[in-house]
Amino acid sequence: MKRIGILGAGTWGMALARMLTVSGNDVLVWSAIEREIDSLSTTRKHPNLPQMKIPDELRFTKSIEEVCKGKDILLFAVPSVFVRSTAAKARPYVADGQIIVDVAKGIEPDTLYTMTEILADELGKEGGPKGVRLVALSGHLQPEHAQVLPYVDQNDRHDYHKSVTKESHTYPPPYNLHDYGSTQYGYQDVPYMF
Asked: Exposed, middle or buried, 155 (CB in 10 Å: 0-12/13-18/19+)?
């Protein structure tokens, strides 16, 4: 079981939070919008993912310190315009050597940095953590991704009717892509992970 902190409670963040929770991880979600945390923790529903039930085990916090400290993985799922400011708020609480997965896409207009470059820049400032390991994750987010999907064996990808649903596999296996730029800039033809 991994301890995972998710910064951002939008559709992408919550779909991943649900997937990681039902896969047996200890997941804590933070949002800068306190009323969003109140609503999600009370209703156990996301307004943009009405068919998705938020598991009881998935926890929420209004504290950026709590979501960052003591985690095996931090997942940044905030809109790209807020990546820098969120990283600045999180900087004092991010551990040395922390694994950080970024799911935001785009380029910062002033610097032309990708989202992971922004994270490296902001977390690398004085007082920031040393040796942070950054990962970019990309793919399609469709409403059914918030639910448990059939797992498709690599040898039987063409025959979805024979698939068996397994709680531990919410998505079909990811594709590895060595085109780092496409992942960062938002290329969306194929789900992939770098």
From this structure: exposed
Q: Is the Cβ–Cβ distance between 133 and 99 less than 8 Å?
A: yes
pLDDT digits (tens, 9 = 90+) for 120-134: 999 999 999 999 999
**In angstroms, how far is the first alpha carbon of the chain from the final one?**
22
Q: What is the DSSP string of 37-84?
A: HHHHHHH-EETTEEEEEPPTT-EEES-HHHHHTT-SEEEE-S-GGGHH
Count the residues in the chain.
194
- The pTM score is 0.77
Is the CB of residue 41 less than 8 Å from the CB of residue 60?
A: yes
**Helical ranges in 80-149 per DSSP H:** 83-90, 115-123
137 DSSP assignment = B
